[in-house]
Structures are given as C-alpha cells and as structure tokens.
C-alpha cells in the first residue's frame, strides 16, 4: 500500500509547479521553496539555521563552544521519469562556524608551552569555512496525501579548508614567541576540523505543493 501511495504521489508531483516546505537536518531547521521550471528539473531556494552547545577540549585546552549553523542555498534537481529519485547540485552561502571561549580556570598549553590565565587573558576563537560552498547530493520526493509531501535529502557540502582565528586580552599578546605558539594552537585546531571540509547533509522536509 505504501508503494501505491508513493507512486501516486510521484504522478501528482509532476502536476505541481510550486512547493513550500519546512525541513530539519544536519544543517539545522530550514525553509524551502521549489519551482518546477523545466521538464524533469526543478529549482529550490532555502535557508537553514541552528545553534547548539559543544563544550569540550580542542587541541588539549578546554573551551566553552557552540556550533552556529547558517546556510542559504540554490539548487537544481534532476528527476527521473515516474520515480521519486532525483540528483541535486547547487551552491550555498555558508555561514557555518564553531565559536569558542577559553575556560576561565587553569593554565593553557600552546605548542607544548604553558601559559597562565594572566598571560593569555580571555581567549576567544572561531573556526570558519568557505563563504560559498558547492553542494551535491541525492534526494527522494514523495507526495503522500493530496498536496502534502515528504522530501528526503542525502548529500555533502564541500566547505573547504577550516580557518581558525584566536585572540585574547592577556599581557603576552604581541610577543612573537607567544604568538608563534598561538599560531601552532590554531593549526592544531584546524587539523581537528579537517573532517568537516566535506560536511554531511541529511534532511527531512514536509512540503505543500501548489
């Protein structure tokens, strides 16, 4: 019965020129609009955002941290006749960032060298990626009941190399030996975020087709 509903939904989807949806996934919560501009091709615009805490250790030091997810995108979706399956390519305006504040107790260790709280001060940092990132993925669009539908996406956002910035308010900022140690710390953090160069995208959307 489920296959019958999905097959019927695919046929109905071909008669729909517009769609609006709400979605949730690894890029956060989002909104999406769809326009069926050409036979077997549709275009989608949308945005995603979410923030969540991710405190813990980075490069041997403790940070209070959070992921700030923010993306806006345009995609082209290539459909297969009489099938819910599609291939998706596009680009995203990428504001994803990992923001950190150093722990206020205990010493720091940069490049194997110890530094006190007074020497470092309030340490803040951010890990960011390319401002514009290509996206490629697969998707399935099912029309379930009437004009209501369900979309599933699985893909990858190619964010590029992580960029790490660290700054502080302590007495050693400006000292070349200290700043060389900070640069080594930043590189170590960047290495820990290498796996996010290809950010996995999984999302589920509820849509209404006009």
Shape: elongated
Assign the structural class, choosing from mainly alpha, mainly beta, alpha/beta, alpha+beta, or little secondary structure.
Answer: alpha+beta
- Number of separate helices: 3
pLDDT < 50 stretches:
1-14
Task: Say what the CATH topology is.
Answer: Porin
Mean pLDDT over the full residue set = 91
Query: What's the N-to-C terminus distance?
Result: 25 Å
List keywords for this structure.
210 residues, alpha+beta, Porin, eight-stranded antiparallel β-barrel, two-stranded antiparallel sheet, 59% strand, disordered N terminus
Describe the structure.
By secondary structure, the protein is of the alpha+beta class. Helix content is 16%, strand content 59%. It is built from three helices and 14 strands. The two termini are 25 Å apart. 33% of the residues are buried. Mean pLDDT is 91; it is low at 1-14.
TL;DR of this structure?
The chain has 210 residues and is an alpha+beta fold. It has helices at residues 2-13, 117-120, 176-192, and strands at residues 18-25, 28-38, 41-53, 56-58, 61-79, 85-94, 97-102, 108-110, 113-115, 124-128, 132-145, 148-158, 163-167, 198-209. The chain has an eight-stranded antiparallel barrel with strand order 1-2-3-5-6-11-12-14. The protein has a two-stranded antiparallel ribbon with strand order 8-9.
